[in-house]
């Protein structure tokens, strides 16, 4: 059993494995009282006045108590983060990291705006944006896989684009705050529109991965199968190694 878990962990792509590891370590560290959630939650006053800037990052790694809800979120994190990194962002680790950076930054700005301008709204009561970032990944995956058939607890079937709305409805049913999911959906839709829709409408791309991030994550070399030459007696399928690029 341990070997199966180890193999499953090692087979994860680098960003998914890193994010999952940091999330488990942070959440477990808080549960074991090695660190305190009060030292990692997003507090605008402490960030601005006390320069505790690490809170802008650490709040994305804490997922609450070590209970069934934690396992549920770890499943979604591991599944949809891995699916995105291995499909839509295959061979483009830098672009995937930039997507998470964009989503985390947008979520932070939305939270800070809500906290400073509308402190009476429930958004001001959110202290960790980890679940929202996970929900953003679910949203982006669902929009890029419109034909995938899914089922909710075996009760009814639907296609992938409805998955965020089904999860949002489930959160409302179990009396959880819908603001966490709504923030993730807003960030996911912003990324999807700017990355997939807007370039098709105008022929221009607004979101471009900075060169410094591309230097940190060089493009992977992926084997891409091509058709064999016709009329030359070339047997089998010819494969050429080339980096996957996106204009």
From TrEMBL:
Its main location: endoplasmic reticulum. GO terms for biological process: cellular response to stress; proteolysis involved in protein catabolic process. It is a multi-pass membrane protein. It comes from Riccia fluitans. InterPro entries: DER1, Rhomboid-like_sf. The chain crosses the membrane at residues 19-40, 60-81, 93-117, 123-141, 153-173. One of its GO terms (cellular component) is endoplasmic reticulum membrane. Belongs to the derlin family. The keyword Transmembrane helix applies. May be involved in the degradation of misfolded endoplasmic reticulum (ER) luminal proteins. May be involved in the degradation process of specific misfolded endoplasmic reticulum (ER) luminal proteins. It is found in: Endoplasmic reticulum membrane. This is Derlin. The keyword Endoplasmic reticulum applies. Keywords: Endoplasmic reticulum, Membrane, Transmembrane, Transmembrane helix.
């Amino acid at each position: 059993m341990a070997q199966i878990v180890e193999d499953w962990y090692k087979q994860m792509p680098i960003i998914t494995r890193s994010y999952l590891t940091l999330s488990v370590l942070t959440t477990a560290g808080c549960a074991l009282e090695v660190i305190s959630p009060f030292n990692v939650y997003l507090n605008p006053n402490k960030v601005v006045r006390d320069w505790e800037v690490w809170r802008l990052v650490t709040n994305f790694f804490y997922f609450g108590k070590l209970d069934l809800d934690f396992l549920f979120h770890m499943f979604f994190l591991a599944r949809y983060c891995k699916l995105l990194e291995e499909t839509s962002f295959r061979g483009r680790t830098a672009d995937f990291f930039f997507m998470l950076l964009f989503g985390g930054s947008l979520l932070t700005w939305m939270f800070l705006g809500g906290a400073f301008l509308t402190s009476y709204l429930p958004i001001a009561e959110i202290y960790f944006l980890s679940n929202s970032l996970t929900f953003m990944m679910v949203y982006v995956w669902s929009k890029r896989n419109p034909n995938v058939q899914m089922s909710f607890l075996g009760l009814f079937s639907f296609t992938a684009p409805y998955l965020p709305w089904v999860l949002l409805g489930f959160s409302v049913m179990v009396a959880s705050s819908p603001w966490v999911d709504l923030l993730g959906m807003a960030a996911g839709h912003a990324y999807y529109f700017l990355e997939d829709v807007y370039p098709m409408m105008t022929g221009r791309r607004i979101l471009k991965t900075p060169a410094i991030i591309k230097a940190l994550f060089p493009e992977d070399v992926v084997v891409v199968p091509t058709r064999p030459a016709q009329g030359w007696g070339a047997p089998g399928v010819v494969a050429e190694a080339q980096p996957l690029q996106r204009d």
